[in-house]
Amino acid sequence: MSPRRAAPSLLQRWASWDNFLAGLTILVLVYAILAVPNFFTAFNISQAIAGVSERALIMLPMVVLIVAREIDLSVASILALSSVVFGMLIQAGMPMLPAILLTLVAGAACGAFNGAMVTVLGLPSLIVTLATMAMFRGIGYILLGVNSINVFPDAFLDFGIDNVPGTPVPWTIVPFLVLAPVFAIALQKMAIGRRIYAIGGNPEVARYSGVRLGRTVFWLFVLSGAICALAGMVYAARLSNARADNALGIELDVITIALLGGINVFGGKGRLTGVLWALLLVATIRNVLGLLQIGGDAQGTVIGLLLIVSLMAGNAAEQVFGRLRARLPLLKHDG
Fold it and tell me: How far, in Å, CA of 257 to CA of 263, rounded?
């Protein structure tokens, strides 16, 4: 095969949003390493990874829900409520392992409430989770008020502070590193993933094909609640703090990461690969802004702009890359 014939095939393979996002992320990383003081240090890398631990965890079920044409705006509130539940259980003298298990159950119960409202009553998930976003955080305030719990077992605090021995990788990111491959395999390689994409692509066709929409969506919300509870405990360990106002606004970051990563807001399309690049890009941007002494409000503005850009760029990129892939075989034929 001549070089002229090989080139179009290679371009076809690389003409995708995922690869464009990967290139953009690498460029931002190179800029940060070369131009931002103290970025490329073991301490900063460790802090940056730790700071994205909860977002990374919550991102996984959020991606699955958006692919299934649903959304969960209550993720940060479940995180906060779960941290309160865990803190109160520890404060009451419960051993850590039972407290962890009960907190996961509490998070799953929050997800089950969302799922029941959506699947049993037929309410839109956007409206349901907008309401429970306030409700779950309100329950946290009822349980703990404006107080905080800061006393936890040493093993729990060590998990929140220490790194994996010999690396700059904090323990708090390990739950994500364990779960991410599971989600990727389930979405891309297993029957459950095909059912989720079918639901998002066309719910009625999926129903007539034998997919149990209600049951599948319900358990996706339960899974989201449980992982948010896990993120709540990671958050409490990292900051040694359980409060009802933990993680305010984190849902904006999570949704931005999912949509920027190529997940279609209307469901049925997207891969976890692009979302992982988007996670790295958003984490890098936040870290760079922090090192440049740019405050949280300005960082929120940047993330909001990224969300708007991701919404506009998604459709445009799909058309551009689609046309490019369509033209390349013609170029190959002409050659």
Answer: 9
How many angstroms separate the most distant Cα atoms in the chain?
Answer: 75
Residue 219 forms part of a structural domain: yes
Q: Provide the CATH number for the domain around residue 315.
A: 1.10.3470
Residue 303 belongs to what domain range? 19-26+44-327
Indicate whether 36 belongs to any domain: no
> How far is residue 168's CA from residue 58's CA, in Å, rounded to a whole number?
22
Residues 125 and 118: their CA atoms lie apart, in Å, by: 6
Token pair for residue 138? 């309100």
Give the angle subtended at the CA of 223 by the CAs of 186 and 57, to the nearest 5°. Answer: 80
For residue 303, give every residue at least 6 positions away whose Cβ sits within 8 Å of its Cβ, in sequence order, or none. 252, 253, 256, 282, 286
* Helix H or strand E segment including 10: helix 3-14
Q: How far is CA 313 from CA 32, 98, 260, 320, in A?
A: 24, 46, 8, 10
Total number of domains in the chain = 1
State pTM to two decimals.
Answer: 0.88
The separation between the first and the last C-alpha atoms of the chain, rounded to the nearest angstrom, is: 12
Q: Pick left, alpha or beta for residue 214 (phi over 0 → left; psi -120 to 50 → alpha; otherwise beta).
A: alpha
Q: Which two tokens stand for residue 254?
A: 């999570």
288/284 Cα distance (integer angstroms): 6
- In a domain, residue 284? The reply is yes
Token pair of 15 as six digits:
């003409």
Task: Confirm whether 33 is domain-assigned.
Answer: no
Question: Exposed, middle or buried by CB within 10 Å (0-12, 13-18, 19+), for 283?
Answer: buried
pLDDT the model gives residue 314: 59
Encode 7-21: b = buried (16+ Cβ within 10 Å), e = exposed. ebeeebeebbbbebb
In the chain, the amino acid numbered 97 is: L
Compute mean pLDDT per 10 residues along the chain, 335 residues long, and list them. 47 68 91 93 94 96 96 97 97 96 98 97 96 97 94 95 94 97 94 94 87 94 98 96 93 90 88 92 90 79 77 62 57 49
